[in-house]
Prior knowledge:
alpha/beta; TIM Barrel; 16 helices; about 35% helix
Amino acid sequence: MKLAALLPALTLLSLPTPTRGPAPARETVDILITRGTVITMDSARRVLEDGAVAIRGDRIVAVGPSAALSARFTARQTIDAARKIVMPGLIDGHGHAGHGLVKTLGMDTEQWYGATETVYARGSTVDFWRAEALLTGVERVRFGVTTALSFFGGGDMVVRTDDRRYGDAYLAAIDTVGLRFILAVGPRRPPFPRTYTDWSSGSPREYAVTFARQLEVSETLIKQWNGAGAGRLHVAVMFPTHHPETMPDTGAAVAEIKAQALAARALSRRYGVLFTEDGHSRGTIKWMHEQLGILGPDVLLSHATGMTDEEIGIVARTGTKIVHNPSANAAMREPFRLIELLDAGATVMLGSDGVAPDRSYDMFRHMFQAMRYHRAAFRDTNVLPAGKVLEMVTIDAARALGLEREIGSLEPGKKADVILIDAFRPHMVPMNMPLYRVAYFANGNDVSTVLVNGRVLMRDRRVLSVNEESVLTFAEREANAAIRRSGLEPLMQTPDGFWGRSRLPKRP
């Protein structure tokens, strides 16, 4: 064969073998949650069948298919979410600090409300508030509640802001548990001065507290704690709701209430924190708007039952947010007009209303209650779809708290507040239709793993941030001590009329 004929073949043989470029460097993340059914709650409301969430520091860096994220990232810690639902942490918009240690005290006797006032103002110590924060913090973690707002007390709006020691102890305990938390502080209901009891010396010392003192302590707590805990801890300003029908008779007394309300609102604006009020009902929103002019997008009103059409319009126009507590007694006395509010464009979130006298911080329970409550009211099973209820404890709830850029959905750039729900349980199987499983069948005890700010607070149902047994022992001790100090032991007895009747007897 001639050399010229061999040249093409020789040329081909001499060409360098093509080589592939270097494999792209894998990024390192702190945590990679893989193989879960991911309910993102993002703007498209995506649900990923075999999904993953990548976390670096306190933020989510990627959400997508497990295969893609596993190929892209090297993780310091991998959490296998097979047979689990992965979703944003739940958000509780209204609770009461202190309630965890007085559950059912005086229930069925018409005395539980007054009992809480007595315990909080006269029978509580710094350790009482520390123990309650630890106890309810653990309860929330176990139930997948990663963000919560609580008023610092209850009863007749008894807020323990007579001395900063109580708020400091409470927020330090919440910080230890690791929750994202908003503590609402401010003045209690007038007239002032109000009496509080200090037990720090071992024996009771009563003293009078003014409105100015409570506002001063509230401001101190804002300065100390708002934005603390790597941004997890916040302080809001609260003010007692005033009903037009029960206003004082004198113009001077009404003027004093208005001045106090405006002072509390000015405090919230000065520090750019949420302003909140509890116990709204028919007529109170209109009065607040017309007489005070202090509504707005940074205002969150709790209960708000019995609203008129005019008040619904006020809420929508001002951008005021509402927290609906479907399991609360207030929702039984007057209807809450959720559907009308939503149709008007208002932002509404769900709340537990705390755990006294007869509830829990299990937001799955309150989601289910909300659907039943409104469908029964309208006699229509199409009312309040499960998807809207899921939004009301995640992305809508974040919006109501002014935190929608940080939490409420699983999206890159947002805080890594994530929960895993065990779907391989008898009441959750078959594991199809995960959105419906979460809304209708799940309960707080199905939550297996919880992360807040990228920190694992509970793994496989074991709380990691605190010693749970020690917390429960501490809480048991402090609850009994506070009830004893307050002289309320008789309210722990089962009352007459508990058994064998169709309804409880009327009480004085």
